[in-house]
């Protein structure tokens, strides 16, 4: 009864925000982030366009089949969509699923045709199919186009340099909360490639329950484009005991982390990711992330992405620090630092939130959607990915 009452109150608050003049987008963001997210697909159809500033009264016409003619991406998109059977609800009739797959192909080709600066990547279809299943083809086309030119922009560059740069935020976030886990992963030389599919599909490719996928999409749509990497970090931190008990070698740690659990405490992790974003915003981590990128780029002569990802090396300072510090001392330091961060006075957090002009709902930070994705991300002349 209490849950139903909370749900009714939240639905009422969402519709109040939708019906206000002007629409209260800040309240909609808080609702998308707070416990339970946007609750139903019917509500998502109304709120997702507001979070992305898409005018639903002026939607583009449905894409036509002529887009498939002489399209350089068509064959790859076709292959990926044909392999996407598990992304559709189990028990869906074959003819209905096949019709949706055709719509999925058309949406992707339409966005790419209208935005020639964007490049298709494998995994993009996992994001598009989520929008298609929730809001239908015409609205999905508009939402995906806006998302592709903003939140997903860096994944759609000609090279994977910016994607790699975003992955480089993962280890600094982990280091802020649990240096022991960070140093263990550096010693194992596992790198960050295990989180690549999480990041570029917004976890759509790796989570089997569609309810969890759309809950995360509520969260990510209301937040800064880097929020998925913060969520990836809290997944690793949630599994810290498993990580530390693993064999300290690349293959073992990579295998463990790449097998994402399906029973994660999503609401708790969403709240922690929001907290970490506020405590350690990207601007504070950018220098360390850029340093990792610069060092690996300068040191690397690999041209093949897979080879580069497998043979990543921790920097010399971290490796030396891990070797020289006794294990007991390292564990104690890690516990003390974790305790310090997780037990910071709540007043400090609220002061910082007030300064940043943010609000808090049920333990998660409500973050404004940025107007352009990662314009501050440094560019490097030397590219390790062809």
Please tell me about this protein's structure.
The chain is mostly helical and 386 residues long. It has 2 domains: 150 residues, Helicase, Ruva Protein, domain 3 (Orthogonal Bundle), CATH 1.10.8; 137 residues, Ypt/Rab-GAP domain of gyp1p, domain 3 (Cyclin A, domain 1, Orthogonal Bundle), CATH 1.10.472.80. The chain contains 21 helices and 2 strands. Strands 1-2 form a two-stranded antiparallel ribbon. Strand 1 and strand 2 form a beta hairpin. The longest helix is centred in the first third of the chain and has 21 residues. The radius of gyration is 21 Å and the shape is globular. It starts with a helix and ends in a 20-residue tail after the last strand. The C terminus is likely disordered. Its main location: membrane. One of its GO terms (molecular function) is GTPase activator activity. It comes from Sakesphorus luctuosus.
Strands of the widest sheet, in order across it, are 1-2
- Distinct helical segment count: 21
- Name the overall outline: globular
Structurally, the number of domains stands at: 2
**Unreliable segments of 5+ consecutive residues:** 296-325, 337-386
Structural class: mainly alpha
How much helix is in the residues? 55-70%
CATH architecture annotation of the largest domain: Orthogonal Bundle
Please give the number of β-strands: 2
Measure the end-to-end span.
57 Å
Helix-strand topology string: HHHHHHHHHHHHHHHHHHHHHEE
CATH C-level name of the largest domain: Mainly Alpha
**Looking at CATH, which topology of the largest domain would you report?**
Helicase, Ruva Protein, domain 3
Largest sheet: 2 strands, antiparallel
Strand content range: under 5%
The radius of gyration is: 21 Å
Estimate the mean pLDDT confidence.
80
């Amino acid at each position: 009864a209490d849950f139903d009452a909370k749900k009714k109150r939240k639905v009422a608050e969402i519709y109040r925000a939708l019906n206000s003049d002007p629409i209260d987008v800040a309240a909609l963001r808080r609702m998308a982030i707070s416990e339970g997210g946007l609750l139903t697909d019917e509500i998502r159809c109304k709120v997702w366009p507001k979070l992305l500033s898409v005018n639903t009264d002026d939607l583009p016409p449905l894409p036509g089949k002529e887009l498939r003619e002489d399209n350089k991406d068509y064959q790859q998109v076709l292959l990926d969509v044909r392999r996407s059977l598990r992304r559709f609800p189990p028990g869906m009739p074959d003819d209905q699923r096949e019709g949706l797959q055709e719509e999925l192909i058309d949406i992707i080709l339409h966005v790419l045709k209208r935005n020639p600066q964007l490049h298709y990547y494998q995994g993009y279809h996992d994001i598009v199919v989520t929008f298609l299943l929730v809001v239908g083809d015409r609205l999905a086309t508009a939402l995906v186009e806006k998302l592709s030119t903003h939140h997903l922009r860096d994944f759609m560059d000609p090279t994977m340099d910016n994607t790699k740069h975003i992955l480089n935020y993962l280890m600094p976030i982990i280091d802020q909360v649990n240096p022991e886990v960070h140093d263990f992963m550096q010693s194992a030389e596992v790198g960050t490639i295990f989180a690549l599919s999480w990041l570029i599909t917004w976890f759509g490719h790796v989570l089997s329950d569609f309810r969890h996928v759309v809950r995360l999409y509520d969260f990510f749509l209301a937040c800064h484009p880097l929020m998925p990497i913060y969520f990836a970090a809290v997944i690793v931190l949630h599994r810290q005991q498993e990580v530390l008990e693993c064999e300290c070698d690349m293959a073992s740690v990579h295998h463990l982390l790449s097998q994402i659990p399906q029973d994660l405490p999503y609401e708790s992790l969403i709240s922690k990711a929001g907290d970490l974003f506020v405590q350690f915003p990207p601007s504070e981590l950018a220098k360390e992330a850029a340093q990792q990128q610069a060092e690996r780029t300068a040191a690397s002569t690999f041209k093949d992405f897979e080879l580069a990802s497998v043979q990543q090396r921790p920097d010399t300072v971290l490796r030396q620090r891990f070797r020289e510090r006794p294990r007991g001392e390292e564990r104690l330091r890690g516990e003390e630092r974790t305790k310090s961060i997780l037990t910071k006075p709540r007043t400090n957090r609220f002061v910082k939130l007030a300064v940043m002009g943010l609000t808090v709902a049920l333990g998660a930070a409500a973050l404004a959607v940025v107007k352009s994705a990662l314009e501050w991300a440094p560019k490097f002349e030397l590219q390790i990915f062809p």
